[in-house]
Every structure is written in C-alpha cells, then in structure tokens.
Design brief:
Chain lengths: ~325, ~260
C-alpha cells in the first residue's frame, strides 16, 4: 500500500485549491466607469472576499485610477499647466475633486518657500528652459509615490509575506510584517515599504524616499525627508480600492496632509484600452479569456512628446560600472 | 488554512516511516531538511528568493585572461567558443573594439535573456503556481515566466526580454523564449544576437541555496549551430539582504530633482 504518495497527492490538491479559486474570484468589472469625477467612499473594516494561502485578502490583479493622470494633482481633470482641458471650463464641481482630501480646501499645505518652488516649476513646465523644469517621468524616471497610481494601469501580485506592485515605470516590493529596514541614508525613487493587513486595508509605511519623482506636471512634491503612510482600502465588492496616503515632511509642509486616489479593478470582462488596461490576450486555446502585461521599457526608446513632456534620449554611457 | 496545512503536514510525516522500509524512492518531503529543496504546496520546486551569479560570464562568455576591464574567467560556453557565422564574427570583433562605449548596459537598458540572469547583480524570483516573476535589481527589468500552459502570442513581438513560456520537466523548469529584438548584447565583450534569437533555459536546484542555470541559444543569422551557457546561481544569504532599486538610467538627470532654489 502506497500511503505516502496518497498523502502527497492529498496535500497537493488541497493546498492548490485556494490559488485556483483566486484566479477566478474577481467579479466581472465591466460596469465600473473607467473615468469618473466621483470618489466612492470605501470604509475600512473586515474583508469578506477570498484569501491567499497565507491569509492575505486576495486582491491580485490589474488596476487603474479613475479620475485622471498626473497632469494636475489638485484639479485632476483640468489638465496640466498650459494645456487646460475642455472640462477646465466647467464649474469646479463638475470635475473630480482635488486628490488632497485633507485639508478640506484641497490644497497641499506647503511652507512658503516650498510653495514658491512648486509654483516656479508649474510656470515653467509648458516651456522648460532648464532641465529641472522637465517632468522626470518624461525622462522615464520611475513615477514613484504616489504618481505611480495616477499613470498607466498597474498589476498587483501577491506571495507569502509580500505584495508586489508592477507599474509602467518601475516596481515596488511591499514586505509584510516587521523586518529589517534599509539605512535611512539610502534614498530611492519608490522608497522602501513595510506593510501589514488590517481587515480590508493594506497599511504601508514608506520611508527612504528621494522625493525626486514629483507628483505630476504641476510640480507638487515631497522632499527626501518625507514619510508616507499609505492605506489601500479594498472594497468587499472586489472591484475597487481607494489609495489614501498621508504625507509628513516638516521641511516642505506646514502640517501632514492626505491624498485620496480612487482606483478600479480590470478583469477579463473589460476591453483592453492601451492605457488603463494595457494588456494583451493570453494565447491559451481552449481556456477562458485572460490578459497579461507585455514588457515595460522606456529609457530604451524614449523621445520627445507633447506638452512640455520633453524626452531625453540617452546616447552616451550613464554608468562606469 | 494555515492550521489545516499544518495538520496535513503532520499526517504526511506520520505516514512517511513505512516508506523507508523498502527501496522505493524517498519522496521529497521526507528528504532531510539539510538537502531538501524548497517546494510550493503544489509540489513544484520553489525558486523564490534572491539569486546572483558568482561567475565572470557577463564580462565575457568565452574563456579570457584578465584585462583592464574584465577579471579573468574560464568561460561558460559549452565547448569554449561561440560558433559565429563568418560575417557575424567580424561584427562581434567590431563590438569588442567599441565595448567601452556601445555596451547597452552602460545606458542601463534592459539586458535581455539570458544576460540579465548572469549579470553580476541580484534578482528576486517571486513564484506562484501560474507563473514566476523575475525582478532584477539593475534597471527596470521585470520578466514574467508563465507556467500555466499558455503559448507564445500569435502576434510578432519585438521585445528586449523576449516572450517567456515555462513548463516543468520533473523538477526542472524549462523556459522557451522567443520574440526578441536585436538591441541587446550577451555580455560586455560584444557577443550578440539578432532578432531571430531563440533561447531555451533550464532552471533546477543543485541544493536548496544553489540553482543550475543553462541557456541554449540558436540564431540562424548569427550562429552556425545552437550553443549553450551554464552558470550557477547562488542564493543571497547576507544578513538582512534585500533588493535595492537601481533604475540607473536616472543617474544622468536625478540631480535636478526635487526642486532646489536657484539651481
């Protein structure tokens, strides 16, 4: 009697079940708007959806924000400096609210010197006369925190003790639980992340920020002294989350402030669109339709494009190592 | 779930001893912890972790003495040298002469496959039943190897990393990689390929902290026959080790940010 192989089979089949379920768990999302001025309220609380084998809420999949890109942080549908959108002509309440959800006036509470630097960038953005007026994302820099959530759609993958974000212009590994930290002197485009799950909410502390990515084309920013307390609040309908992040930086802000970015999920029920859901069909004859990201490059083929987003092709060595 | 798995593990261990009573192969779970390889719950080898080569492959795949820009290396090409077609060999020699300026790595571009694997910087493998994700510390290189039975796309892609599709042959992950462009080099010595490159990789454990990696390359425009490289990949076990982003191509402009008064 071969009891050992039987027990192995049992172990394998039971343990494999959650991941199979997880792949099919996402409810169809085609009814969710891709772009809207609304910011749905999602309360922190219990998670009632599927879980990964290590007990995390299973939220792996494709996502993209629903109010607009990084053109304008505090008036997300009004367009970047010098390129006001059609919607900018409408009364303010006909457009999405500021991503700044606290303070109530929707403005980042800059210290005066920091406000002057941000305003100087915005003024010069449409016709940049110096390298520092070029938005770093136009040069393929990682979009960083929080701009990665206002750019192309992105993918979230989960592993035991890890939530992995794959953005259009970089990646973030969020390690869950306590663990070693990088030395504070190391400053990074995407910072260093430590997280934990509280019910339906992924809570992440982002340290080691270099502040270089900026928040968008108006030049809103933090410095290398900033820490970011992120809360990813997932809706139990499994179709959305809100990214709620509190920025603390006494050298740039008069007080901590909070941004809210609404995000929706994309599933096989959605048509790819080259932006929010920039994917290709998986070639798997006989299997249900599903999509996958294609490789992301930028520095390799970067060139100038519109709106002051001046690309900087690199034709010489960047490193000597 | 955790409790259930623990219970099952207990049961399976309890059932193991009878298996030692004869000469049947020892199942993986019963191998002593010192030599057992990590496995997913599905039983497949679990390559999760941070890996890096100790080899000199990226300096020059072929045997070479030490020189100003490369430590000596015994070579990692099976048979010693790469079987170039005559015209391609001339191009390789031209690359070699211009390597200090033209190696795409100097611009921090995506290194391609297999170069990214034996480039001397760590990369982390994240693994699920349906795929492996390779996140390389250097540049912005993220590669997915699906292991879900999917095929290469019908569309003709022109990719730096190519399109990878994996399958298991026992405990060996075999990855078929196609749809390359011709932008990447194979090492710092100017070895190269065309967009006709086809790579077959084989990944397997030597022990729990060491991977055997081989890649067979065929390219009818550049090579006279298929050839292979073999390297070992070692688990980075330094205390508290983790990947530190190294986008690298940002270095030439990052000093402009964030805003600084008057600069």
């Amino acid at each position: 009697m071969r009891r050992t192989p039987f027990s192995l089979l049992l172990l394998a089949s039971i343990a494999a079940a959650p991941s199979v379920a997880a792949q099919n768990a996402a409810p169809a999302t085609q009814g969710e708007p891709r772009r809207s001025k609304e910011v749905p309220v999602i309360a922190s609380g219990e998670w009632s959806g599927p879980r990964t084998a290590d007990g995390q809420p299973d939220i792996a999949g494709f996502y993209s924000n629903t109010v607009g890109n990084h053109g304008n942080f505090t008036d997300p549908q009004a367009g970047p400096p010098g390129e006001a959108s059609e919607a900018a002509k409408l009364p303010r309440d006909r457009r999405a609210p500021s991503r700044v959800s606290d303070p109530a006036d929707g403005q980042i509470p800059y210290l005066p010197a920091a406000r002057a630097l941000q305003a100087d960038f915005a003024k010069n953005f449409p016709n940049p006369t110096r390298p520092r007026y070029i938005e770093p994302l136009a040069r393929c820099a990682p979009a960083g925190v929080p701009k990665s959530f206002m750019w192309h759609g992105f993918e979230v993958r989960q592993y035991p003790g890890v939530v992995l974000f794959l953005f259009d212009s970089g990646w973030r590994v969020v390690r869950l639980g306590d663990g070693p930290r990088l030395a504070p002197s190391i400053k990074l485009w995407n910072g260093a992340s430590r997280g934990r799950w509280e019910g339906n909410t992924l809570v992440v502390e982002v340290t080691n920020n270099n502040g270089k990515a900026l928040f968008g084309r108006y030049g809103d920013y933090m410095s290398e002294n900033a820490t970011v307390a992120e809360r990813y609040v997932f809706d139990n309908n499994q179709k959305r989350f809100n990214y709620v992040a509190t920025f603390t930086d006494p050298t740039v802000y008069a007080r901590p402030w909070t941004a809210t970015i609404p995000v929706r999920r994309y599933t096989a029920a959605d048509e790819p669109d080259g932006w929010n859901f920039d994917v290709q069909k998986v070639n798997a004859p006989g299997q249900p339709l599903r999509y996958e990201h294609v490789e992301r490059i930028c520095a390799e083929n970067n060139g100038p494009f519109g709106g002051g987003a001046v690309g900087v092709p690199s034709d010489g060595p960047v490193i000597a190592r | 779930m955790r409790q259930l798995k623990f219970l099952l593990a207990t049961v399976s261990i309890a059932l193991v001893p009878p298996a030692f009573a004869d000469d049947r192969p020892v199942p993986p779970q019963a191998v002593p912890a010192s030599t057992a390889i990590p496995r997913l719950a599905s039983g497949k080898p679990d390559f999760s972790g941070i890996w890096q080569t100790l080899s000199e492959a990226d300096y020059d795949l072929e045997p070479h003495a030490g020189r100003r820009d490369a430590p000596p290396g015994p070579g990692v090409v099976e048979g010693g040298t790469i079987p170039y077609l005559p015209g391609a060999l001339a191009q390789r020699q031209d690359h070699f002469a211009r390597r200090a300026k033209d190696d795409p790595r100097l611009k921090c571009w995506v290194l391609g496959v297999p170069r990214g694997v034996y480039y001397p910087a760590p990369f982390q493998i994240f693994q699920r039943d349906r795929d492996l994700t390779l996140v390389h510390q250097f540049g912005n290189q993220v590669r997915t190897i699906p292991t879900d039975g999917s095929l290469h796309p019908d569309a003709d892609n022109d990719l730096f990393l190519g399109d990878s599709r994996g399958r298991w042959e026992g405990d060996t992950l075999v990855v078929d990689v196609t749809d390359f462009n011709e932008e990447t080099w194979l090492d710092r010595a100017g070895n190269f390929h065309s967009d006709q490159l086809h790579v077959v990789e084989r990944w397997s454990f030597v022990d729990k902290d060491t991977l055997s990696y081989s890649a067979t390359l065929e390219d009818p425009r550049v090579f006279s026959k298929p050839w292979a490289v073999n390297v070992l990949l070692h688990r980075r076990r330094d205390r508290d080790f983790q990947l530190i982003e190294d986008y690298c191509y940002t270095l030439e402009y990052e000093h402009f940010y964030p805003h600084k008064d008057g600069k």
